[in-house]
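Worked Example 4.2. Consider the chain below.
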Amino acid sequence: MVLISLRIDKLLWHLRLTKSRSLAQALVAEGHVRINGKRIEKSSVEVKAGDSVTIPKGEGAFAFQLLSIPPRRGPSAEAVTCYKEI
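Applying the procedure from the previous section yields the following structure tokens:
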């Protein structure tokens, strides 16, 4: 099954950028996540390949472009092939 899009909270969890899906939901609810430069506040927002996502990381931010939708939450080596840092 090929995924076309995925909820932002599941994406952050699948890519191992958050330790749990509930932490990803909290980041989104607090307004710390941007998709294509637009601030989002709902975890149900769908992202697709080609979208750029920005999340907080330490004192700064981490921005990446989604290359493909990960089918599962696999090992980190598999997750890093799905995005590139911008």
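The chain has one domain: 5-85. The chain has a mean pLDDT of 94. Compare this with Example 4.1 before moving on.
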